[in-house]
């Protein structure tokens, strides 16, 4: 059963949240929003409004139109917290993620993340992502796959 939608905190005596999603893909947005909505229902939370969506994770949080809407809803007392799928939807930088959570707490709100370690399986990939993955170098050609300073080691030219 999906959570109810409420325009006022506490109308039903339950916690109201704003679901915040950041993705460029419409199909991924639907999947993520559905996941968050089911998570909210499992916590007995109600949604303060429809899912709020931004499309650009690279923008600073305060410059994202969707986040500005989230902030307005919180300030107006329409929600007690923000529910999102992953910390990366808030920021790609871990320190900034922690700062946002601390700032929300300081203001009397909370940040909830619906993805759990068991949810680490990837969402369906876009065709372009799948093509890039198929064209990626094979294992062993990257000196350190987890650093941004890494560069691919060129494969030997079989014609040489």
TrEMBL record:
It comes from the Bacteria. Residues 131-145 have a biased composition (Low complexity). Residues 118-160 are annotated as: Disordered. This is Resolvase, N terminal domain. It comes from Streptacidiphilus jiangxiensis.
């Amino acid at each position: 059963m999906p959570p109810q939608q409420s325009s006022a905190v506490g109308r039903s005596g339950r916690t109201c949240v704003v679901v915040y999603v950041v993705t460029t893909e419409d199909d991924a947005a639907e999947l993520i929003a559905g996941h968050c909505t089911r998570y909210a229902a499992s916590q007995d939370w109600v949604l303060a409004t429809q899912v709020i969506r931004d499309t650009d994770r690279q923008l600073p949080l305060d410059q994202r139109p969707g986040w500005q809407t989230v902030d307005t809803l919180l300030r107006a007392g329409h929600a007690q917290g923000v529910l999102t799928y992953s910390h990366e939807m808030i920021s790609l930088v871990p320190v900034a993620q922690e700062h946002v959570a601390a700032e929300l707490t300081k203001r009397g709100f909370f940040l909830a993340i619906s993805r759990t370690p068991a949810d680490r399986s990837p969402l369906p990939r876009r065709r372009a992502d799948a093509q890039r993955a198929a064209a990626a170098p094979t294992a062993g050609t990257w000196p350190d796959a987890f650093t941004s300073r890494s560069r691919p080691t060129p494969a030997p030219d079989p014609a040489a």
